[in-house]
Amino acid sequence: DPSLWRSAHKNRINMAFKGEDLLDSLSLPVQRMHLIQVDSVQRWMEDLKLMTDCECMCILQSKPISIEKDEQNELILSSQHSTCDNLQLLLKRAWIISTELTRIAQKLEKNRWQRVHSLTVRVNCHVHSMVTEYSACARSSPEERHQLEKLLIDKCSEFTAFTERCLQTEDEEILKSMKSCVNETLTTVAQYFGQLIELVLTQEAQTLLRQIELSGSLCVTESAVSGLFSLAQEGAHLCRIIAKEGGVVALFKICRQDCFRCLYPQTLRTLASICCVEEGMHQLEKVDGILCLADILTDTSHSEATHAEAAAVIAQITSPHLTFTEHLSSFLENMEEIVTALVKLCQEASSGEVFLLASAALANITFFDTMACEILLQLNAMKILLAACSDRHIVDTPYSRDQVVTILANMSVLDQCASEIIQGNGVQLLMEMLFEKSSSGNAAEVAACERVQQKSAVTLARLSRDPEVADTAIKLSCIPRLIKLCRSPTERNNSDSVLVACLAALRRLAVMSPEGLEDSDFQQLVKPRLVDSFLLCTNMEESFV
C-alpha cells in the first residue's frame, strides 16, 4: 500500500493539474476526500455519534456530570481532544447543520410541515451541541463569538417555536402567510450560522499564526504548522482565510530561518496547499516566495524531502488551470535555475514520489513559458526523462508517465527535439504509451491512462514531421495501433480526445507511408475531413461476432 506521504503528495498535486485543452490536463488522484465522498456506511457510522436523540439533548444540554469541581475538571481534561480533533468535530457538526438547513428548505417548498418542524428541532440541538463542544475546548472566548453564538441559539429557538405553531394551524391561508416568515427566519439562521463558522475558523487561523510569530520554540512552531496544514486540507475557503490572515508570510518566514530546517518539508507542504487560491499566490509574490523556493531548490545541503516539497509548491503555483499566475513576473527571473534544479531532482530521485513531484513541476513550467522547453533541451532533460521511464521503481504509475509525456509533447514543437527522441529510444516509449491501461480500474487512474494515450499520439503527430522519426514509428507498427485506437472505443476508454489525437497522428504517418494502410482504413480514417472521420469512429459499434 502507498505511504501516507505519497498519498498526500498525489492528493495535493491534483488541485493543480486540471487543464481542459488537448495537452494541459495533468490531473492526478482526487484531492483530499471530503465528507460526502466516502462509503455510505462509513459516513453513517461517523455521523451516528453526532446524531443524539433530540429529547435527550434538550434535557441534558449543559448539565454537569459531577457536582465535585475537582472531579469535573479531571473528567474534562481526560476527554480533551487535540486542536485538530476539536476542529474536525466542529466541521462535522457544521456539515450536518448545513445539510439539515438545506433539507428544511426543500421540505418547506413542499409544505411538509411535520418534517420541517422535526428537522428544525434537530438543527436546534446540533447548534447547541456545536456551541457547547467548541466552547469547552476553545483556547479563547472573544466577545464577538459569544454574541454570534447567542444570536444563533436565540434565532434557532425562535425558529423551532415558530414551526411548532405552524403544525398547530390547519388553515391553508394562514400557513401560506406564515411560510414567508419561516423562509425569512431560515435565511437568518443560515446567515448567523455562516458568520459564526467563518469567525471561528478565522480565529483558529489567527491563533496558530500568532504561535508561529511569537514562539521561537521548535515544538510549538511544528504544532502550529501542522494545525495550519489540517485547516488548509478542508478546502479552498479555509486556504483563503489563512492567506488573508498572513499565513503565507508566516510560513515563508520559517523557510528563511536555519534553526527551523527540519520543519521545511512540512512548512512547504502547507504552502503548496494554501497557494491553490489567488490570495495565497498574491501573498507569495509579495514576500519574494519564488526567490526563496529557488534558493531552497538550488541549495544542495537540503534534504531530498525538502527539495521535493519545494517542487510541489512550484507545481502548484505554475498550474495550467490557474488563471491568476500572470503576476508571477519574478518566476521568469529565476526560471533557469529552478528548471535546472528540477531536472537534477528528476535525475537523482530515490523514489517515484520525488520524481512525480519534480516532473509535475517541469510539466507545468513547459506550459508556463516556451523558453522552458529550450532550457530543458540544453540540459539534456529528454535523455534524463527517457532513462527514468525505463526504471519501473521511479516511473511507477500512469501519473508519472503522464508528466513525462506532457513534457515530451511540449518539447516536440522544437525542431532539435526529434534527434534527441531517436537517440533516447523515445519513439519506442511513445509506442508503449499508446497501450497504457489501468490495472486497478480506479477512475482517476483510468483518466491518467487516457491522457497518456492522448499525449503520446500528439507527440508522435508533431515529431513525425521529421522523416526519420516517422520511419521509426512505422517500423514499430504504430499505424496498426493507431487504427485500433480509432476503431475500438474500449481501447481508448471511449475518450474523444484520444480519438482526435490518434486520427491526427495516423494522418501524419499515412503521408509518409500510405502503403501501411488498407484501403478501407484510408477511405474512412485518412481521406475524409477530420471531423467526418471523428463522427464515423464515435458512431462505431464493436462487433462481437
What features would you describe in this structure?
The protein has 545 residues and is mostly helical. Among the domains are: 81-203, Nucleotidyltransferases  domain 2 (Four Helix Bundle (Hemerythrin (Met), subunit A)), CATH 1.20.120; 425-544, no CATH class. It has 28 helices and no strands. The longest helix is centred in the middle third of the chain and has 43 residues, at 172-214. The protein is flat and about 85 Å long. The two termini are 41 Å apart.
Mean pLDDT: 82
How much of the sequence lies in strands comes to: under 5%
* Separation, N- and C-terminal Cα atoms: 41 Å
CATH top level class name of the domain at 81-203: Mainly Alpha
Order of helices and strands: HHHHHHHHHHHHHHHHHHHHHHHHHHHH
- Which structural class is indicated by helix and strand composition? mainly alpha
Number of strands: 0
Bin the helical content: over 70%
Q: Spell out the CATH superfamily of the domain at 81-203.
A: Nucleotidyltransferases  domain 2
Cα-atom radius of gyration: 29 Å
User: What is the fold-level CATH name, i.e. the topology of the domain at 81-203?
Assistant: Four Helix Bundle (Hemerythrin (Met), subunit A)
The description of the largest β-sheet is: none
**Number of helices, counting only DSSP H or I runs of 4 residues or more:** 28
In the predicted model, the low-confidence regions spanning at least 5 consecutive residues are 1-37, 53-81, 541-545
Domain Protein inscuteable homologue LGN-binding: 36-81
GO cellular component, one term: apical cortex
GO molecular function: cytoskeletal anchor activity
Organism: Sitta europaea
